[in-house]
Task: structure prediction
Amino acid sequence: MAAPPQRVLRALLKELRYLGPESGRYRRTAAYKYIAEQFRKNQVTSEKLCRAQQELLHQASTYLCLLQSVRHHQALHQVYHSKGELSPQQVSQQVGFKLPQQPGGKGWEE
Result:
């Protein structure tokens, strides 16, 4: 079952807030105005089956998935690729492993 249109609209506008550098100014963007206009234009009518509304909801859900995926990808990219060259110890700590130690402290000293 698809999400209700209001939930999709709120989630889309939330993603627009994440994209914009200035908080509070996302309502003045062309993307915000276009999305709000399309949702107002395709509100529920008295028709039994409104194909245009279902298509809009599907497109909006797909676009929402894209925006969320891009945001998550950017966050992961920032975590794992922003530090440049790392030592093996730093890499193992970053992924949650511990490098084995030599007994007596011999063999792997730097």
Notes: The helical segments are 5-19, 30-41, 51-81, 88-95.
